[in-house]
Amino acid sequence: MRQWMLRRAVPMAAVVLVILGVASPAAAGGTPYDPSNWAGVRAWEWNDGGAWRLPSRVTAQWQVPCLSTTDTRYGAYDQWIGIEGSHGTQIQVGVRSYHVQSGWGVFTGYFAWVVDTRDAAVRTPQRVFSIARCGFGVTAPIVNAEVNADGRVHIRAWNAGNTWESTSYSNRFTGISGPEFPRFGTFVLERFASSAANTLPWFGTAKFEWCRVGSISTSGWYLGNQDLVHFRPTNMRSLVQGPLGIPLAAVVTGSPNIHGDFTFSQVLTY
Fold first, then answer.
1. Maximum separation of any 2 CA atoms in the chain, in Å
2. Predicted pLDDT of residue 135
3. For the segment 240-250, what is each residue's pLDDT rounded down to a tens digit?
4. Which of 62, 110, 147, 237 has the fewest CB atoms lying closer than 10 Å?
5. Integer Rg of the chain from CA
6. Whole-prediction pTM value?
7. Of the segments 15-29, 190-204, 223-237, which one has the largest average pLDDT value?
8. Residue 5 scores a pLDDT above 50
9. Model confidence over 35-54: pLDDT tens digits?
């Protein structure tokens, strides 16, 4: 957990509780996504030589925006990809970016995590490696990730620093199996509220690239090929209600292009 940019000496157990407890992906509770807290793309079928099939494998690359360590807009968010099952199982890999204020001070950092809600070992987000390069005057790290419905996951960060620590992780967890079946492939940016992170840290823009939907045995197609992948983008709603109770957009997504690229643009933080 080195290079988490801790501003003062605190008990390590307390740091872990703060950062892992700040925000948990929606999957960790086994509940549907809350439209006010996430933005992204859900794909529900792809064309395999004329036959429409459910996604059982997703891959993507994304950039991790570097947060300001002095910003007073505290919070945490996750960028992740995943497979969602028909009974609500989630298999996900992602990166958490946090800039939070607690009783021990202000913490800013980034780490990769995994989730498989059918596997007791990773039913809640498990940190697998830290990303140290942000905040040291270097461009945003790049992440490559893969999730398969059979439980195989992979995530790797490069331009990430930490040469003394692992910056990649692969494993196979429980996966999705009968009577449940894979239902959606997802590419998401998700925000959470808690006592330690009650808004959204300012990240500006965040980009997903090369988002692909397919099966475990077939690579499939990039998201933006609408004749070959059926998908729907969703915008994050406001953290607060606007005039007359109308939600205001906090983060919006552009529609994926033919290369599977799309961008999250931050509009509001409060």
1. 59
2. 57
3. 666 666 666 77
4. 237
5. 18
6. 0.86
7. 223-237
8. no
9. 667 889 999 999 999 999 99
Residue 28 tokens, joined = 């960790």
Burial class (CB in 10 A: 0-12, 13-18, 19+), 227: exposed
Q: What is the DSSP string of the chain?
A: -TTS--SS---HHHHHHHHHHH---GGGGT-PPPTTTEEEEEEEEEEETTEEE---EEEEEEE-PPPPSS-S--EEEEEEEEEEETTS-EEEEEEEEEEEEETTEEEEEEEEEEEETTSGGGSS-EEEEE---TTTT-PPPEEEEEEETTSEEEEEEES---TTS--EEEEE-----TT--EEEEEEEEEE---SS--S-----EEEEEEEEEE-SSS--EETT-TTTEEEEEE-B--SSB-GGGPBPPSEEEPPP-TTS-EEEEE----
Q: Cα separation of 50 and 47, whole Å? A: 6
Most confident of the following: 22-36, 165-179, 194-208: 165-179
